[in-house]
Every structure is written in C-alpha cells, then in structure tokens.
Amino acid sequence: MNKLDFDASKNFIKEIKIKANKNKLKIKIMVKKLSARPNDVSPPGLLKKTYKYIQITHENLSNADISEAYIDFAVEKSWLMQNNENKNNVVLLRYNEKWEELETEYYNFDNTYYYFKAKSNGLSYFAIGTKTPVAIEDEQQDEGTTPVEGDAPDGDETQKKDKPVQTDTLIVQKDDETKKSPLVTLKRIVMLLVIIALGIFIYFKYKKKKEQESLFKNAQFAF
Hints:
The chain is of the alpha+beta class.
C-alpha cells in the first residue's frame, strides 16, 4: 500500500493511502484546495453545510487501478463551533458523475483540528462538510400506543383513577354473590320441599275425602 503525507494546514488533507490492483513503481498524487465548487460539478445535496472542496489528481495511475484509497483529512474546530455543528456529523463526499457519501470516521484531534479518515475507491473531486443527523424517534410513537379497554389515555388522570375503582367494585360484588349463593340455593331447596310436601298433603287429604264420600254413598244404598 502506497502512503503519501501532506500538510493539513495547507489543503486539509493529512494523508492518503492507496492500494493498487497493479504494482506501480512511481505514483504521483496532487492535492489542490479549491476556493469554490467547480462549475462542471453539481451542488452536493447530501451536505447540510459545506466546509471545503478538494481536488485530488494522480499520474501513472487510473481509478480502475485503485482497489482502495484511504484519505485522512482535517476540519477546523473553529468552523464547527461557528456553524454550531458536531464533529460526529462530518462526512467526506466524492464526485463520480454524482456525489457519493464515503464511509467517514473521526479518530483524533489537536488544538486546531479534528481529524477524520474516509474510504474511497477512486480519486477526483471531494467535498468536506456536515450532513443532517438522522432523527431517532420514540419507539412508542412509531408503533403507536393503543389504550387498553378500561385504561385511560395519558394525561386524563381522572379516568385513570375512576376505572380501577369501578373494576374493584365489580370484583367485590362477584365475591359477595359467590359467598351468598350456597345459602340462596339452600333456601330454594327448602321452599321446593315445602311446596312438594304441601302438595302431597293436599292430595292425600283430597283422596281421603273422596273415599269417605264413597263409603257414605254405599252405606245409603245398603239401607
């Protein structure tokens, strides 16, 4: 792997490491800090704020010969502070017919700069800047909170307090009915037995009366 060191204070590139598919005895890399975006390059829409544009050219080497390229670059601490940006949002983009976000990692700092490294599969125009952080939403909001039947929605403390009381009352009533049910059943059985006994008594009394009337009629015929 070929390693080339640069002065980060001049062009914000600290180091470039290149792994070539073919053995190259002499590789020449030129780094140029640009004062503005090149006219033939579209704006980097992936960036929230743009820090610097860099052009990296090479001789005796084509992008097809590059297997991997590791670019170490620097961002001034003062720029991040002035723009109210976080170092964790710094990213390096490469232009290859369109802007492509490169895998970027923060790894060090000194009194003036934060240092980052990014992996690329070629060299061309680059843009250093910050991207909009991905918002992490509350999982409960994503999934949605469906109130359980009998529970009050958040914020309605009155319903939250009333519902459990009603539930407890129902449970107590069920317990009372369970305790009273054997006594009620016994009373019903006794009443049923009394009715049956009364019916039997009336039946035999009626039958006895009929028998007496029959005997009385037979006695009259005998006379």
